[in-house]
Amino acid sequence: MNAVIRREGKISFVIGWMLTIMAALALIAVILLAVLGDTMFLIFLFGPLLLLIGAGVNFWLGSRARLEITPDEFIWCGFVGRARRISWRELDRILIPAPGSRPRLVAAARLKNGAVVEVDALWLSPTNPANMLSAPNHSQAQRTLIDGHRAFLAGAAGRR
Q1: Alpha-carbon span 100 to 140, nearest angstrom
Q2: Residue 123 has pLDDT above 80, yes or no
Q3: pLDDT tens digits for 128-152?
Q4: Are residues 37 and 106 in the same domain?
Q5: How many Cα atoms within 13 Å fall on the side-chain side of residue 69?
Q6: 42 occurs within a structural domain
Q7: Same domain, residue pair 105 and 78
Q8: Same domain (yes/no): 146, 75
Q9: Does the predicted model carry a pTM greater than 0.85?
């Protein structure tokens, strides 16, 4: 089973493309002003460069924030920080958080050694209209995690 769930990363791609278009328009304007007017306008090439850097950062951040389910493990990563991964072999079960838990907490993974690891990478902006009206809904990510673990257990039972 392969699946990737993204939340706020989608808006980062939209903002990245908007910044790219703005940079292209600003670049055209600066070149036209430098050719038709004074060459001193070339100093304003830093504006489009800054816009392109901002677009690159948004594309990068948008591609990081995810929960990825593979046949051997699941990987989760927020906008910043390192990606974390847990192999299905190490996992005992997926625990669904109780109502009223932290809004970012998607699930908890109880490992076979007894440790509990919180899965909270699917960041949802507090200013997102859906979050202002109710608590974030992580049911799709929780269902996908549980289905991925079931698929691994079914595959492991078939290999015995």
Answers
A1: 18
A2: no
A3: 565 666 666 778 888 888 888 888 8
A4: no
A5: 19
A6: yes
A7: yes
A8: yes
A9: no
